[in-house]
Fold this protein.
Amino acid sequence: MTNRLGRRPQTTKLRSQQWFDNPDDPGMTALYLERYLNYGLTRDELQSGKPLIGIAQTGSDLSPCNRHHLDLARRVRAGIEAAGGIPFEFPVHPIQETGKRPTASLDRNLAYLALVEVLYGYPLDGVVLTVGCDKTTPALLMAAATVNIPAIALSVGPMLNGWHKGRRTGSGTIVWESRERLAAGEIGYDEFMEIVASSAPSVGYCNTMGTATTMNSLAEALGMQLPGSAAIPAPYRERGQMAYQTGKRIVSMVNEDLKPSDIMTREAFENAIVVNSAIGGSTNAPIHLNAIARHLGVRLDNDDWQKLGHDVPLIVNLQPAGEYLGEDFHHAGGVPAVVSQLLKAGVLPHPDAVTANGRSIGDNCRDVETLDADVIRTVAEPLRPRAGFINLKGNLFESAIMKTSVISKEFRDRYLSNPDDPEAFEGRAVVFDGPEDYHARIEDPALGIDENSILFMRGTGPVGYPGAAEVVNMQPPAALLKKGVHALPCIGDGRQSGTSGSPSVLNASPEAAVGGGLALLRDGDRVRIDLKKGSADILISKDELESRRQALVKDGGYAFPEHQTPWQEIQRAMVDQLADGMVLKPAVKFQ
Ligand code: FES
Ligand code: MG
C-alpha cells in the first residue's frame, strides 16, 4: 500500500517536527512557528518533541446533538496535557441531522474532505475525533482512514431518556408514532409538540437505537473508541471522565504509532457487522461502514452484511425494535456487555482484533457483566432470532437493504403468512418521485392505495436528491391509518431514519437518477419481494423492461431537480451509490 498520507515509520521523528523543528529549513520553521507562538505557546514546548494532538470539534450552536463536545473538549485537553501532549482544537464543518436542508447526508463527504485537508496539512501527530450526531461519526472516521495518523473517537453520548406521562419517549421513534396519531385526529398539535419535545430532555444525541447510537456503538466495536465509551449519556460524570481518558490515550497511541489502518481491519469490520445485528443497528450503518472501509482499502460490501450479519440475533432491547433507551443501555453495560454476550456464544468472529487502548476487543469485554438482563439479552434467549439485514437484488436494483428486526407482527401476518411461500410478498406499486410528490398526492383517493399496495419512493438517492434523503419510510394515507393499517411496505433509492421501525427496502442502488431499475417502474405494476431468495422484481417481461429503458433514454433519462448550491453540483458529479458507501469516487485512491 502506498501513498498513506500520514504514515510515520517508527524510526523517524514526530510528524509535527517537519513543521516546527526542521533543521534543513530554518526559514520555513520560523515562519511555521511564529504564528503559533502569538497566543502564548512557547518555542520550547513546540520544539520539545511533545506530540501535537488535534481535537476535531464537531460541536457548535448549529449542532445541538454534538454541542456538549464544546465542554468535553476541556477534559480532552486536560488528558492530552497530563500525558505530555499539546492540544490543538479546531472546528469541523457542522452536520446536524435534523436541521440541515436538503439533507444532512449531503454534508458527510464535505466534512470528510475538509477534515482530510486539515489532518494532512497541519502539524498534527494524532487526533481526537469528537463524534455523535449521525453523519459526524462516519465523516470523521473516513477522514482518519484516509490520512491514517493515530486517531481515537470520543462520543458525545446520548441524551437522557425522554419521558411523557410515565412512558419512555425515544428520539425520532416517538415523532413517527405521534405524527400518525396527529394525522388520525387522536391528539392535537400542542400535545403533539409536547410529546416530541419530551424525547429530547438534555444535551446529547438521539437516545434510541437510531443512526447515532448505532454509529457510535460501531465505532467502539471497530476498536476506535475506548471500551465502554459509546453508551455513556452525555450529561453523566463518566462522560467527562471518558473525555479525559481519551485525551490521555491518544498521546500513547502516537508514541506507539497505532494507526486507523492497524485497528480498522477487515476483521474489525466483520466484528462490527455482527455487533450491528445484535444491537438492532440502523440501515445507515452499511452505507457508512462500507465508506470507511473503502477509504482504508478494505473490501466490504452489502453481501458481507447479509452473510455475516443476517443470522445474528437481536439482543439489545432499545427502541425502535424494542422498548428501552440510551440510559438503560448504559446501565445494562453498553457495548462491552453486548460483545461479552457475543463472545460467550462464540458469535463474535474476531476476538483478537486490536482496539484503541492497545488490547484486543476480546480482552476488553470478556469479563464484562450484563447488569440488566431485560435490556441486554443473551444470544440463547434473544429478542428476535436472525435479526440482520437482507441484501435484495433483482430487476428493480442491484442492491437494497431490508432490516428484518423491525418487521412487525402486523406486517408478518399480512404479507408473510402464506404457508406456500412464507417469506415472499407481492403488491401493486404506487410510485412517488421524491418526498414533495409523496406529500402532495398521498391522500389522493384516485391512487387507490389499499392494504396490498407497495409504496415506492424514487429520485431520492445520492444524485437524485443530492446526498440521499431519509424519506423512504412513508406513512399510509389517513383512511388506512383509521382502519388500523399503520405501515405499508416501502421501497426506495433513498434512506430511512434509523429511528423508524418501518418494514422498508432501502438504499436501492443504482438509484433512478442514474438509470437504475426503479426509474422503469410504473404505477400499477406488480412487484414481488422474496426475502428467502433475496430477490426484488417488477413482474414484467424482459422485452417490456427493455422497451421502457429505451423510452427513458430517448427522454433524456430520469429527471431530477436543479442544483441549489455549488457543493450539490460538485458532489453529484462524483458520488458513488449507497451500496458502495456514497463515497466521492476520486477520493478512494488516497489510501
Ligand atoms: Fe443528531 Fe439524532 S439528530 S443524533
Ligand atoms: Mg437520520
Summary: Confidence is low (pLDDT under 50) at residues 1-11.
